[in-house]
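Quick illustration, no need to memorize.
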Amino acid sequence: MESSLKSAALLEQMKKHLETDAGKELKEKVGLVYQLNIAPKKIGFNEEIFVVDLKEGKVSKGPYDGKPDATFSFTDDNFISIASGKMNPQIAFIRGNMKIKGSISAAQKFTPDIFPKPSKL
């Protein structure tokens, strides 16, 4: 996945993580499709789109073909902070650091727990 975003490296790790037993458990536990619109500096500008498909256990670049369960928009730095557990997703949303479209119940399952821990990177 060609990208200048720091997030792309994490999503590349996520792809490998989904092939492990822990990744397969995630598929069974979450079973949702998330579209991530990640901007280098400002939400809505020069966004790169990734899909974390926890139904199929795949990570891809480009918009989801269909309707994702939830779509998130954030900056590269904020995505890294949320995925690594440094920023609480609810706080990020309240502060406007993250925007959500789609199912709120699906969005609530989008937690740092679904991402591989940095020690595994």
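DSSP finds five helices and five strands in the chain.
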